[in-house]
Specification:
By secondary structure, the chain is an alpha/beta fold. The structure holds adenosine-5'-diphosphate. Adenosine-5'-diphosphate binds next to α1, β9, β11 and α8. The site of adenosine-5'-diphosphate has 18 residues, from α1, β9, β11 and α8.
């Protein structure tokens, strides 16, 4: 039984009509994706991580907890889809091999933008606790940027396997990312590692250009004493596939502008899968498994 069913309804937050007040089935692993500030590609990493894990055969849920600025409707192409409620439960959208739920399909995002802490807290708990996730191996949570209320609510509500911090290579982005990592530490959430997004650009000439100074996030991970989980290039196909709501295309060289992006996303998925597996064992969420090859 999860703690969500014990969470009081936040003042000012109206439950969605027709929903039962029940606890969620838990995922074997819960991985939050956070960033020190907006625009560094946190949601892009969360979406592509979820798809990468699903492509490895795992049953994956993706929760858009960026209550104040949900981007999943765009990134997953949910705009024309209706949010349905069945037997008192929100039905996640089954797209791109994952199950996804977002506040963006429940309220006008412009209204959510002005919600105060308790309302966002109630909305988060409703999304977590009243979604019909079914059996999940992994639940990936796309957090709002920065160090705000939702991360605190999440830490109080769910037992996380760990958090991934996304950052761009520049020094200012790193400073914010360090603050985000410290916040996870203070909330008792293990930092699984750091992903560097917009790390480098591969030109038509096939050369790599380090526009923002590749490698900054790796150094920062070293300073924090956490693993470096991979570098994702700046890639026009990633941007257009995201705008068109089709992350599956990022994993096929024919629609991903070549090999670099699929390789980087798969390597990131593998690294996070590995770190989450060992973190889950440390946290007593999973038993060690022996793989004989
Ligand atoms: P955040 O969640 O940190 O605010 P998003 O994931 O929404 O950021 O990304 C912001 C914008 O940058 C989106 O338009 C996204 O498609 C684009 N973007 C993110 N990462 C990359 C990348 N590596 N290459 C090209 N565009 C990217």
């Amino acid at each position: 039984m999860s703690k969500t069913d014990q969470t009081p309804q936040a003042p000012g937050h109206r439950p969605i009509p027709g929903l039962a007040q029940e606890s969620p089935p838990l995922a074997s692993r819960i991985i939050a994706v956070g960033a020190g500030k907006g625009g560094v590609g946190k949601s892009t990493v969360a979406v592509n991580l979820a798809v990468a894990l699903a492509r490895k055969g795992r049953a994956v849920g993706l929760l858009d907890a960026d209550i104040y600025g949900p981007s999943l409707p765009t990134l997953l192409g949910l705009d024309s889809m209706e949010q349905t409620v069945l037997a008192g439960k929100l039905q996640p959208h089954a797209v791109h091999g994952i199950k996804a739920i977002t506040i963006g399909k429940l309220v006008d995002p412009d209204k959510a933008l002005i919600w105060r802490g308790p309302m966002a807290h109630g909305a988060f708990n409703q999304l977590v606790g009243q979604t019909d996730w079914g059996e999940l191996d992994d639940l990936v949570i796309d957090l709002p940027p920065g160090t705000g209320d939702i991360a605190l609510t999440m830490a109080q509500t769910l037992k996380l396997t760990g958090a991934v911090v996304v950052c761009t290579p520049q020094r200012v982005a790193q400073d914010d990312a360090v603050r985000a990592a410290r916040m996870f530490g203070q909330l008792g959430i293990e930092v699984l590692g750091v992903v560097e997004n917009m790390s480098y650009f591969v030109g038509d000439d096939g050369k790599e250009y380090d526009i923002f100074g590749k490698g900054g996030a790796e150094q920062m991970a070293g300073r924090l004493g956490v693993p470096f989980l991979g570098a994702i290039p700046i890639n026009t196909a990633l941007r257009t596939n995201s705008d068109e709501g089709d992350p599956t295309r990022n994993f096929d060289p024919a629609t991903a502008g070549g090999e670099a992006l699929p390789r980087a996303l798969e390597a990131m998925g593998d690294a996070i899968d590995r770190e989450a597996a060992t973190a889950a064992v440390r946290a007593g969420q999973a038993k060690p498994t022996l793989r004989v090859t």
